[in-house]
Amino acid sequence: MKWEHGQYDDAFEAVKLAAKMKMVLNYHKGDIADCSPEDLITMLKSEVDELERAIFNKHVVDVIEESGDIMNFIVAISHQQIEKYRHRKDDND
């Protein structure tokens, strides 16, 4: 199967919207970026387990919501590493 430009646009948009919704709903828990990378990876693994259950149960809305959770953890980890990279010069002074 050949990848076609734009073929995943609907899925990406659905997951992106779910990720934003989950960030809003979980805002009261604090800023995800304040968690350690190790904690984020642990929580990410837990979300992958939840995604697996949603896939097994054939609940498409749950699959999209769990994918949104996973996206949030991946973005938080990436954000931390980008910030660390950007401030590497400051850390060496």
Task: Describe the secondary-structure layout.
Blueprint: H1 9-25, H2 37-56, H3 60-86, H4 88-92
Helix pairs in contact: 1-3, 2-3
Give a written overview of the molecule.
The model has no long low-confidence stretch (mean pLDDT 91). The chain has four helices and no strands. The chain is globular. Helices cover 74% and strands 0% of the residues. It is mainly alpha-helical and 93 residues long. The chain has one domain.
Number of strands: 0
Overall structural class, as computed from helix and strand content, comes to mainly alpha
Beta strand %: under 5%
**Can you summarize the main beta sheet?**
none
What's the helix count? 4
Mean pLDDT: 91
How many domains make up the coordinates? 1
Spatial gap, N to C terminus? 51 Å
Q: Regions with pLDDT < 50 over 5+ consecutive residues? A: none
Query: What is the 3D form?
Result: globular
Helix content: over 70%
Order of helices and strands: HHHH
Rg on CA atoms, Å: 16 Å
In short:
The chain is an all-alpha fold and 93 residues long. The chain is built from 4 helices and no strands.
Key phrases:
93 residues; mainly alpha; 4 helices
